[in-house]
Design brief:
- The protein is α/β, with parallel strands linked by helices.
- It contains nine helices and 14 strands.
Length: 296
């Protein structure tokens, strides 16, 4: 069994290094599709690829649609695909425990596994303030490619859209909701989704939240009517991120596990224990700083 990470990014230089470093120890390979970034994202990716040349593969693409082709060939193989975004910071030790369970076949009967999420409005020291999933939707992306024969396009981006052909015994309703079965503290598969924070140095400090690709390109009837209504009455359509990711109370969580500072041996030791390919020369994780945001 292999765990392959896939990331599609465009102008994500604020959190991208942390997002990759946290996911990398558990992944056998990590693929990054860089979609015409104009901030420091490309520079950061090139540095990481040089540091982890046996693990990270960076591709520069012109269209987000191209990102799905990098994982399509894994269909029908004993492979799990972990989709990571530039604003998703996973618990690195938790992902290693999750990898052990995947190796043991614990979730082999599932097609999709959903983890826990804290949608972050503010990072302050070792604390994060945000909204839990549930009641928000979980946006984690962990797919069992052994369950399918093919995932053909067209796809707006990797792991979204297209046509899936399942192997006998599998179907799209085999969904495992770990985030509904375990508390945040007991979850191995959990993520800080910094969707309400600035993600690129090109963005203003207090600008509008960035829309994701699917919000921009996926034109459902409901979205079309909402936007048309907004035009007619002269007000913006309802904010999709607020609707999906700001449900429930605002909570405060201790999140030092997501920012393991001064642990130079963490990446190397865990790569060597879980992968057949030796770990590369790793440097210590960079310290987290305070990111000030505002509550709605």
């Amino acid at each position: 069994m292999r765990l392959i990470g896939i990331m599609l990014v465009r102008n994500e230089d604020v959190f991208i290094e942390r997002a990759i470093r946290n996911a990398l120890p558990a992944c056998d390979d990590f693929i990054v599709a860089n979609h015409q970034s104009k901030d420091r994202t490309t520079e950061i990716l090139e540095s990481l690829q040089s540091e982890f040349s046996n693990r990270i593969k960076v591709h520069h693409i012109r269209n987000s649609d191209d990102s799905h082709a990098f994982i399509r060939s894994y269909a029908g193989s004993n492979t799990w695909i972990l989709g990571v975004d530039g604003d998703e910071i996973y618990d690195p030790a938790g992902l290693l425990r999750l990898k052990t369970k995947l190796l043991a076949g614990e979730y082999a009967d599932s097609w999709i596994v959903f983890g826990g999420v804290l949608n972050v409005r503010e990072l302050r020291g070792n604390s994060a303030f945000g909204h839990f999933s549930p009641p928000c939707r979980s946006m984690t992306k962990l797919y069992n490619f052994n369950a399918i024969e093919d995932w053909a396009g067209p796809c707006a981006e990797r792991l979204h859209g297209g046509s899936i052909r399942f192997r006998p015994g599998y179907h799209d309703q085999l969904r495992l909701d770990l985030h509904k079965q375990y508390s945040w503290e007991d979850l191995d598969f959990r993520c800080l989704h910094v969707c309400f924070l600035r993600r690129s140095s090109l963005e203003p400090e207090n600008g509008l939240f960035r829309k994701n690709i699917m919000d921009v390109r996926a034109w459902s009837r409901t979205k079309a009517l909402q936007k048309l209504y907004g035009v007619l009455i002269g007000s913006p359509a309802p904010d999709w991120k607020e609707q999906k990711y700001a449900r429930g109370p605002l909570v405060q969580c201790e999140v030092s596990a997501f920012f393991p500072a001064q642990e130079p041996g963490f990446l190397k030791e865990n790569m060597e224990s879980l992968h057949s390919v030796p770990g590369s020369n790793s440097r210590s994780f960079f310290d987290v700083g305070s990111t000030n945001g505002s509550f709605s």
